[in-house]
Design a protein that fits this description.
With about 100 residues, the protein is of the alpha+beta class. The protein has three helices and eight strands; from the N terminus they run E-E-H-E-E-E-E-H-E-E-H. A hairpin with a 5-residue loop joins strand 1 and strand 2. The longest helix is centred in the last third of the chain and has 7 residues.
Length: about 100
Protein backbone atom coordinates (compact mmCIF):
# COMPACT_ATOMS: atom_id res chain seq x y z
CA UNK A 1 0.00 0.00 0.00
CA UNK A 2 1.25 3.48 -0.87
CA UNK A 3 -0.02 6.95 0.06
CA UNK A 4 0.72 9.47 -2.70
CA UNK A 5 0.57 13.27 -2.79
CA UNK A 6 -1.13 15.22 -5.60
CA UNK A 7 2.00 14.92 -7.79
CA UNK A 8 2.09 11.13 -7.46
CA UNK A 9 5.11 11.09 -5.14
CA UNK A 10 5.04 8.48 -2.36
CA UNK A 11 4.48 9.92 1.12
CA UNK A 12 4.42 6.53 2.86
CA UNK A 13 4.51 2.89 1.84
CA UNK A 14 4.25 -0.46 3.55
CA UNK A 15 7.42 -2.21 4.56
CA UNK A 16 8.60 0.48 6.97
CA UNK A 17 7.23 -1.48 9.92
CA UNK A 18 4.99 1.35 11.15
CA UNK A 19 1.68 2.89 10.19
CA UNK A 20 1.72 6.34 8.55
CA UNK A 21 1.66 9.44 10.76
CA UNK A 22 -1.40 11.68 10.90
CA UNK A 23 0.56 14.27 8.90
CA UNK A 24 1.29 11.78 6.09
CA UNK A 25 -2.33 10.63 6.01
CA UNK A 26 -3.54 14.24 5.98
CA UNK A 27 -1.37 15.11 2.97
CA UNK A 28 -2.35 12.03 0.95
CA UNK A 29 -4.17 12.65 -2.33
CA UNK A 30 -4.23 9.03 -3.56
CA UNK A 31 -4.18 5.54 -2.05
CA UNK A 32 -2.59 2.77 -4.13
CA UNK A 33 -2.76 -0.86 -3.07
CA UNK A 34 -2.39 -4.33 -4.51
CA UNK A 35 -4.58 -7.17 -3.36
CA UNK A 36 -3.03 -10.58 -2.68
CA UNK A 37 -4.81 -11.74 -5.86
CA UNK A 38 -2.56 -9.38 -7.87
CA UNK A 39 -5.09 -6.67 -8.72
CA UNK A 40 -3.85 -3.08 -8.21
CA UNK A 41 -6.10 -0.14 -7.39
CA UNK A 42 -5.50 3.64 -7.17
CA UNK A 43 -8.21 5.78 -5.60
CA UNK A 44 -8.36 9.53 -4.85
CA UNK A 45 -8.63 10.49 -1.18
CA UNK A 46 -11.67 12.55 -0.17
CA UNK A 47 -11.40 14.96 2.78
CA UNK A 48 -8.93 14.79 5.65
CA UNK A 49 -8.19 11.78 7.84
CA UNK A 50 -5.99 11.08 10.85
CA UNK A 51 -5.45 7.33 10.44
CA UNK A 52 -5.07 4.87 7.60
CA UNK A 53 -8.33 3.06 8.41
CA UNK A 54 -10.34 6.30 8.41
CA UNK A 55 -9.14 7.46 4.98
CA UNK A 56 -12.13 7.99 2.68
CA UNK A 57 -11.72 7.27 -1.03
CA UNK A 58 -13.85 7.96 -4.09
CA UNK A 59 -14.88 4.95 -6.17
CA UNK A 60 -16.87 6.18 -9.15
CA UNK A 61 -19.63 8.37 -7.69
CA UNK A 62 -19.48 6.75 -4.23
CA UNK A 63 -17.23 7.48 -1.24
CA UNK A 64 -16.05 4.67 1.06
CA UNK A 65 -13.83 4.38 4.10
CA UNK A 66 -10.68 2.52 3.09
CA UNK A 67 -11.23 -0.09 5.80
CA UNK A 68 -14.75 -0.85 4.48
CA UNK A 69 -13.54 -1.00 0.89
CA UNK A 70 -10.84 -3.50 1.83
CA UNK A 71 -13.22 -5.49 4.04
CA UNK A 72 -15.57 -5.90 1.05
CA UNK A 73 -12.61 -7.42 -0.83
CA UNK A 74 -11.86 -9.78 2.13
CA UNK A 75 -8.64 -7.94 2.99
CA UNK A 76 -7.63 -6.18 6.22
CA UNK A 77 -4.94 -3.66 7.13
CA UNK A 78 -2.30 -5.18 9.43
CA UNK A 79 -0.53 -3.47 12.34
CA UNK A 80 2.33 -2.37 10.08
CA UNK A 81 0.11 -1.33 7.15
CA UNK A 82 0.48 -4.54 5.14
CA UNK A 83 -2.63 -6.09 3.63
CA UNK A 84 -3.69 -9.61 4.58
CA UNK A 85 -6.50 -11.90 3.52
CA UNK A 86 -9.43 -12.37 5.90
CA UNK A 87 -11.23 -15.68 6.07
CA UNK A 88 -14.69 -15.51 4.54
CA UNK A 89 -17.41 -16.16 7.07
CA UNK A 90 -19.62 -19.14 6.41
CA UNK A 91 -23.34 -19.01 6.97
CA UNK A 92 -24.68 -20.46 10.21
CA UNK A 93 -26.51 -23.22 8.33
CA UNK A 94 -23.32 -24.36 6.61
CA UNK A 95 -21.48 -24.53 9.95
CA UNK A 96 -24.08 -26.79 11.59
CA UNK A 97 -23.62 -30.55 11.21
CA UNK A 98 -26.26 -32.37 9.19
CA UNK A 99 -28.80 -34.46 11.05
CA UNK A 100 -28.42 -38.22 10.49
Amino acid sequence: MVLEDAKGMALWQTGKGTLPSAEEVGKAAYVVFSLPSGETYRYPVVGKATSLASVRVRVGKNVYALSVLLKNRHVAIGKDGNLGMVKALTSSKAALPKKP
